[in-house]
Structures are given as C-alpha cells and as structure tokens.
Amino acid sequence: GQQLNQSPQSMFIQEGEDVSMNCTSSSIFNTWLWYKQEPGEGPVLLIALYKAGELTSNGRLTAQFGITRKDSFLNISASIPSDVGIYFCAGQESYVGSQGNLIFGKGTKLSVKP
Amino acid sequence: GAVVSQHPSWVICKSGTSVKIECRSLDFQATTMFWYRQFPKQSLMLMATSNEGSKATYEQGVEKDKFLINHASLTLSTLTVTSAHPEDSSFYICSARDLGWGDGYTFGSGTRLTVV
Hints:
- By secondary structure, chain A is mainly beta.
- In chain A, about 0% of the residues lie in helices and about 55% in strands.
- Chain A has no helices and eleven strands.
- The radius of gyration of chain A is 14 Å and the shape is globular.
- Helices cover about 0% and strands about 55% of the residues of chain B.
- In chain B, strands 2, 4, 5, 6, 9, 10 and 11 form a seven-stranded mixed sheet that branches. In chain B, strands 1-3-8-7 form a four-stranded antiparallel sheet, with no helix packed on it.
- The N and C termini of chain B lie far apart (about 35 Å).
- The interface of A and B includes residues 40 and 107 of A.
C-alpha cells in the first residue's frame, strides 16, 4: 500500500524561528493535506492542496504540493508557543476502487521554547 | 465550516463489556465516514471506511466482528468495540468527508477508551 515518510520526527525550536517539515511518498497522491493535532484532540485541517505545484498559505503557514505529486512541505514562519503540537501530512488515496482514504505520515512533534 | 461531533470523549469500561462510540456530522451529510485508531505517540491508522446504507470496509488485520460499524444515516456512524480487552485501549477518531466543502475531511475530537 501507499506509504508516507514524514520528517523530521520532532523539532525543538526557539520562539520566532521558522519551521519546515516535509512528506514524501513512494507513489502519487492527487491531494495532500496538513493537519495539526493537540493532545487528546482529533486532527484539525491546516491546509489542503489539490494541484501539483500548488503553493497555499494560511496565515503563517505555507504548504506546497510537489510537482512530482510525491511530496509536500509545510513551513511555519515566526513560530509562537501555541504552534506546539503534532503535525501530520496526509495523502488521499486515489487509485481506481479506493474510497478516498487518507494515508497519514508518522507526524512531526513541534516544541517551541518561549 | 464542517463540524464532526464524536461522543463520548473518554470512556472506561471493564473487560468483556462493549462500548459504543458515536460520530455525527453536524452541519453536513456524510455518505462516507472513516474510523481511525491512534496509539500513544503514533500516527492515525485507518480501521475501516463506513458507508451510509451499506457494509463497512475494513482494513487488513481489523476484526469486523470485534469492531462493529453502523452507518444508518447520513449524519451518524457508530463504532462498537465488542467484548473489549485491555489491548483495545486506545484513542479512536472518526472523520467525515464533506463533499460540499472542497471535499474536505473533518475529524471528530476523538474518544479515549480505557479497558480495565
């Protein structure tokens, strides 16, 4: 089945620094999604990408859908303490017969030091 | 935006009993809902895809007789963990597809199940 490699696994940064994380896949996805999960909560959608090469921003967050459709990155600029959480990338299965299931990366745990 | 309500948010039950978890789409109709399981410090693993009015599709290795899924209406899917055992303790999360919202996936807030 399709798998996603997400890196880094964790990051410990100073408030104000920029953050970058990425996901790569062994196969093509037609949709890439980035979620943030806080302890004891379900994931919350941050950015959705639907076209290869697409670059989309949501406030301090910017994500891009790779041209090859096998990768995506998420950048967070000027991090603040409330950015703390686990960030997941997800690709939507798109092969014939799939039901549009999401495949998740293993997550990037972000810690921000004030 | 689309909202998915999941209930209960946490539950403690005794071994051998059954637990039902509800997932409701509050402001949209969801023909497809997904159930995930998440162990501590791990990613979400898809358990099954729930389709309104038909049988759920289970991922390999997930026992359909143990994790009963019912999607009787366009706004409600339930997951029942039958004859629960301590190894079933986990964080269960549902999501629903809102085709009217850019085909977005909205997640419930999760249910922490502890089997003692």
